């Protein structure tokens, strides 16, 4: 069992180390997110009667689209450089490779979120950096990374992989996105988190579901 | 008579309606150097990927050390090292970092000493801190050999390892494989380069159209003997 966790840690270390050197994925995600926010800012300026209804959508949509850029690269880079086989040859259950990749994706998306939250606060003048909101964002991002990583692995062997990932991902991610947006709206309107426990539980349920399904299917997804 | 280390029975593989392997039967004893020749598209890579547990057979049986690969793929993978035309290395990690990563995947004890040993054996210890992206193709392939042998696997799978190498680099790699392969290790290599394959082989086979059309001991067989045989079975392809 400890070998399993060693492999998760090794894959995570490798992805983070590589990304710190190249900044390939991270740069594109951050630049995309910043540009999207800038466009949203100009598009909605002076026309928002109730910011708490619009800003949550802007936040989650920006995270979702920026995240897809990173998720797409997770397996494409491995496949294109031919290194995916090296990972799959590891003498452990292949789900360890999935969890390593998923954790790396989770970290990349969380870092992007940490950077865009102050930007949204400045652009739209709403207090987004609160503990309950960060908790919702973390839970939603776990679900996003969980299902995004498995679909990234699934899409990598197809011809239209760049297009296929969002097409597969967003319908499945919809419950988490809707719950995340609804909870964020409530929190921005001043509701306590306890008023939205049902949404919170829904996100947690889908996080768990995505992780379990990915754990059970990853081997079949990556094997020819 | 003891059971062969690798036993293949009725192995078939199809991608959709395209049948790549059409029923392969093969026994490879422990310590053998088995070279599988065949033209492009013959199914050599598919065969090796199935042995490496990277691809699932459509039907048939593959047993390694008496264990059906589908029953214990994790255990089987501990027995295998793979060198293919793709080096399975990360360009943006240094030579030592790449091996360190693989050492963690394989749970190698005293990894630093083993990494140093392997880098010295392939003549790249002095470049251990350099990123793999700065290496020549020949150096990358030497790194790939170090990576594949890092966990000292009893079976070494070589999928056209000389692809893209100039003749000198290919010659050096063949020498390295002979030296590092060792008499205990079982080598299964695919290539369409007849001379280079014969240098390593103690047994050869020819795969054509997904079928094993020739299988014999390599002892006493020279390039001059093999060339007409190869041409007869697969046509006058590149070799």
Description:
The complex is a heterodimer of chains A (224) and B (239). Chain A is mostly helical. Chain A has one domain (2-222). Chain A contains 8 helices and no strands. In chain A, helix 6 packs antiparallel against helix 7 and helix 7 (161-188) packs antiparallel against helix 8 (197-222). Chain A is globular and about 55 Å long. The mean pLDDT of chain A is 91. With 239 residues, chain B is of the alpha/beta class. Chain B has one domain (6-234): 3-Layer(aba) Sandwich (Rossmann fold). Chain B has 8 helices and 10 strands. Chain B has helices at 44-51, 73-79, 95-106, 111-121, 137-149, 167-181, 194-200, 223-234, and strands at 6-15, 18-28, 33-37, 59-64, 67-68, 80-83, 155-159, 186-191, 203-208, 211-217. In chain B, the strands form 2 sheets. Chain B has a 6-stranded mixed sheet with strand order 6-7-8-3-9-10, with helices on both faces. In chain B, strands 2-1-4-5 form a 4-stranded antiparallel sheet, with helices on one face. In chain B, a hairpin with a 2-residue loop joins strand 4 (59-64) and strand 5 (67-68). In chain B, helix 3 (95-106) packs across helix 4, helix 4 (111-121) packs across helix 5 (137-149) and helix 5 runs parallel beside helix 6. The model of chain B has no long low-confidence stretch (mean pLDDT 89). The chains are: A mainly alpha (224), B alpha/beta (239). The interface between A and B is medium-sized, with 25 and 33 residues.
Q: Which fold name fills CATH's third level, the topology of chain B?
A: Rossmann fold
Roughly what percent helix of chain B?
25-40%
Radius of gyration of chain A: 18 Å
Q: Quote the distance from N terminus to C terminus of chain B.
A: 36 Å
| Low-confidence sequence ranges of chain B | none
| Total number of beta strands of chain B | 10
Number of helices of chain A: 8
Number of strands of chain A: 0
Name the pair of protein chains with the most residues at their interface, and give those residue counts: A-B, 25 and 33 residues
- Which structural class matches the secondary elements of chain A? mainly alpha
CATH superfamily of chain B: P-loop containing nucleotide triphosphate hydrolases
Q: Averaging pLDDT over every residue of chain B, what do you get?
A: 89
